């Protein structure tokens, strides 16, 4: 029973290695350039960089009403 279990485990390992070997690789320099280009293209839409308009910010503090 142990040899069957061991053989089954080895087959799963070989299948996983085959799957990982077939993944298309991208050079780090190309991935970094693509990421930089994406960030620059979408910087105008990034709320952390440009902020949110005051009227559409759902997280703003509610206005207090003072009755005199």
From TrEMBL:
Subcellular locations according to the entry: Cell membrane
Pfam families per record: G-gamma
The keyword Membrane belongs to this UniProt entry's keyword annotation: yes
Top-level taxon of the source organism: Eukaryota
Domain G protein gamma: 3-68
Transmembrane intervals: none
GO cellular component: heterotrimeric G-protein complex
SUPFAM superfamilies: Transducin (heterotrimeric G protein), gamma chain (SSF48670)
GO terms under biological process: G protein-coupled receptor signaling pathway
GO terms, molecular function: G-protein beta-subunit binding
CDD domains the record matches: GGL
Keywords: Cell membrane, Lipoprotein, Membrane, Methylation, Prenylation, Transducer
Assembly and interaction partners: G proteins are composed of 3 units; alpha, beta and gamma.
Function comment: Guanine nucleotide-binding proteins (G proteins) are involved as a modulator or transducer in various transmembrane signaling systems. The beta and gamma chains are required for the GTPase activity, for replacement of GDP by GTP, and for G protein-effector interaction.
Family the UniProt entry places it in: Belongs to the G protein gamma family.
Name the UniProt record assigns to this protein: Guanine nucleotide-binding protein subunit gamma
Organism: Triplophysa rosa
């Amino acid at each position: 029973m142990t040899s069957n279990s061991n053989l089954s485990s080895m087959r799963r390992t070989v299948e996983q290695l085959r799957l990982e070997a077939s993944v298309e690789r991208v050079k780090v320099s190309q991935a970094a350039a693509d990421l930089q280009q994406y960030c620059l293209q979408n910087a105008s839409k990034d709320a952390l960089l440009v902020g949110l308009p005051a009227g559409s910010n759902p997280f703003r503090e509610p206005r207090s009403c003072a009755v005199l």
